Amino acid sequence: MESNLSGLVPAAGLVPALPPAVTLGLTAAYTTLYALLFFSVYAQLWLVLLYGHKRLSYQTVFLALCLLWAALRTTLFSFYFRDTPRANRLGPLPFWLLYCCPVCLQFFTLTLMNLYFAQVVFKAKVKRRPEMSRGLLAVRGAFVGASLLFLLVNVLCAVLSHRRRAQPWALLLVRVLVSDSLFVICALSLAACLCLVARRAPSTSIYLEAKGTSVCQAAAMGGAMVLLYASRACYNLTAL
């Protein structure tokens, strides 16, 4: 891909998109924010342990995923202070961990939130219709399958791209189409679950009412997430 680009744009005509001072400032700002997020989540996990809350729950798994995501992002951005060329010449495993794994973790947190709110909705229905328990199992299987598909596509694309068995642009296109489609689908599912939880009273709406969230606010949050991931998909396709 580098040879194709060099044939289209002369190397002498390539200039940095931002001045070095701006780039350094943004790098410092992002590294600081990711580090603060890491220590914040780390402190919350210690509080869970200190106050004797359930150690294996949706909350602790969500916090653990966020902790790992923040750690990987902090490590990646720390490279850009003095050793940017090395960050672009990493081996297959470090490259995947720093560049691809955070995206997978972000998707896993989205599916985890889907599973939590879907469980709230289905447990409320199971009290009146016991046969709905099968629906909950199907939903869990669907989200686990989506997570495995997302992970498999990202790993395969990274491995094939490193071994140059296929055109890089084709691999990027496949990865973007699959990954962003799954992001948008999960965002739509989460928005639907939030609306269902907020509208069903009092067995499910109490989960949101405890946080002072109304039906309109839940719908707004769901719409914002759908818009966020849809705009991200459009941006990635436009960039390709």
TrEMBL record:
PANTHER family listed in its UniProt record: INTEGRAL MEMBRANE PROTEIN GPR137
Stored InterPro entries: GPR137
GO biological process: negative regulation of bone resorption; negative regulation of osteoclast differentiation; positive regulation of TORC1 signaling; regulation of autophagy
Transmembrane portions of the chain: 27-49, 61-81, 93-117, 137-161, 181-198
Places the protein is found: Lysosome membrane
Main location: membrane
UniProt protein name: GPR137 isoform 10
Gene Ontology CC, one term: lysosomal membrane
Membrane-topology annotation of the record: Multi-pass membrane protein
Keyword Membrane: yes
Keywords linked to the UniProt accession: Lysosome, Membrane, Transmembrane, Transmembrane helix
